[in-house]
Design goal:
Helices cover 41% and strands 10% of the residues. With 79 residues, the protein is of the alpha+beta class. The chain has a two-stranded parallel sheet. The longest helix has 18 residues.
Length: 79
Amino acid sequence: DRGTLPHNELPPETGVLKMIQQRSRNIIWLNPEPPVAWGTGDSEMENYRPFCQMVREAGTINHLQAAMDEMLRLTMRAA
């Protein structure tokens, strides 16, 4: 029964993410886990990464600031 499984033990549903990617400009994924944890344990980040323009660690305010700075640079470059 899927209702009894913790969220991270569900299938990664990459098909849904691919559909979102096809219908949107970009996917930017902010992950609270450090990159060394991506693809380990129950992490599916390595399966999601190919559908994202940008994937960044965002576990601290400094990580969030760096991600926002990078998003602004990308936006300015595209304008």
